[in-house]
Every structure is written in structure tokens, then in C-alpha cells.
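call fold target=Cysteine proteinase
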Amino acid sequence: MASLLSAEQVEAYLDRISLPASARILLKEGPNGSQALEAVTILQQHHMAAVPFENLDLHYSSHRSLPQQTESVYDTVVRRQRGGTCPQVHQLFSHLLRAFGFSVYCTGARLNASASPVAKVDVDRSTIAYGPLIHVATLVEIQGRRHLVDTNLGPAGSPSPVPLQHDKPEVDIWPRRRRMIYDTLPGMSSSDGKWWRLQVQEPDHIWMDVCCFTETEWTPVDFEIMVSGIGQLGAGWFRSLVVCYRIILEDSSPVGYLLMLHDELRRYYKGRLTVVQKLYSEEERVTLLREDFGVNLSSQERKSISGTVGELKDADHDFYG
């Protein structure tokens, strides 16, 4: 499949994520360049630092939907300086990689509940409870090897390409480690159906399952059906909680992340996770989105959340609790 992005759109996209000139030169060498893996790593990390994983259109809009068309998502990410959800951003990011000659496709993935962006800070990491196919995994050929490149998984996702190699641990966001295992899924009837399972491990903790997928390519229609199904059956926390996430880069290296989870801001920095701010009003949340995530909501967008389950009100806070 050819990229749907023009040369001008590609340059504007790279400007949007502030990709260094040196990385742009490496990308132009293509998937077999001597530093192709480094190029895609830098691209992914700058993307994850600039383009947040967020579901704001489900709360701060009149249409309450997540458009999937490439031109629409491009307009949201590049021109409006916003982010998006995994079905939206993964497919757009795939076209960006194709513009540099990379062989790339997307497939459906399952998420483990313990690794959800809305999981509690003290979640039981040993629990493995995979849900339906509601996530997207982007698979990219880099120097002859297939890698998972996931820009929109949230806090448990890896900020660099993960080779599809069984049990090869590597440092992820220091001091966290990550690995891929190729194994069956607990609770499945099939004893020989294997999945690629991404796992992460914090110091002094066990490995935690994050997501799983096969290498079967999905088409855009498959993702439209997935998104439609989520809308018909219910999207769990997606329509009730406002979420925004991005990674933190220091000296061009990932050192942590920021996660706005409805009414609080969590910060993971060099192995330590803390709640750094509680939010008690829409004004506070809108200000945080602007200052910490670069998201500027219009006055009309801010009004759209009024009266919905996602709205923050002072009355929601128990000042005596």
C-alpha cells in the first residue's frame, strides 16, 4: 500500500513532532539503511512526546465521535495540534512510515486489564485478563526484521520499536524493562494458538502482560467495524473518563510519562510514579491540557462537555473526605 500523504504533508507532520533534521536524513535511507532502527526509534519517541493518546473528541465536541479517515485524522493531529485514539493515530502513523519506503501494516490487538491506562496505581500485575480486540498494533519491517511500533498504547506501552523475538528483555523507559513472548493466552480454548505478548517489568516486580496480537493484517474496514462495535456495545471507560497521555523526553531519551486520568495528573519519572495534581473543575483541566499537553480547546469545545458524565464540577469533590 502506498502512503496517502503528500510530500508537503509529510514535512508538516515531521515539523509537528519537532523531528530533528538528522533523523529526517536517516529516515530517507529507508528500511534497510544502516541506522534505520535508530531513525524509527527517534521518530516514534518524538511522536509520542508531541502527539498525545487522548479521547477528547468523545467529550469536548458536539459530534462525540472518532473519525477514522486519514485526511480527517491528519487535520486533527497536524493542523489542530491534537492527538487521538489508537485506531486513528496508528493508521495515520503507518502512512508516515510508508512515505519513507517502510513495509508496514496494522492489526487488531487485545489489552490486558492490568495494563489499562485507567488501572489503579497499586494494580495486581500478576492478573492476566485479556479483553476483546479493541487496540491496534502497527508492525514494521526494519532491516529485515518485523517490529511492533506502538505510538498509542498509553503508560504500559513501549516508546521504541520492539522486535518480534521471543524472550529478549531490553531496557524500556529506564529502569523498566520490556520483552516480547510468543505463547498461548491463558483462558483460551486453543492449546496451540500462539500470540505475541508484550510484557513490561518494573524493578522488584514480576513481568506484566500489556497487549497481545497475531501477525494477521487488518484492512481499514476491519478497524471501522471494530470502532463501530465498540460504539454499539459500549466503550467501557472511554466515554466516561477523559484521558490524555504523552511521554517525557530528556536529552532525546524517554525518562517517563504524563497521564491525565479524568481528575488527576500522574507523573512517572525515572522509575517513580506519583499523583502530582488533583483536578476539581473544568477550568483546571482545560488549563492542564494546554500547559502540559499542548492541547488548546476552543470555547465551543469547552462548552460541549457541559452536562455530560465526563464534566468536572466542584460539587463532585468531597472536601471533607
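return ok
The first strand starts at residue 53 and ends at 54. Helices lie at 7-16, 21-27, 36-50, 70-79, 86-98, 220-233, 282-293, 299-303.
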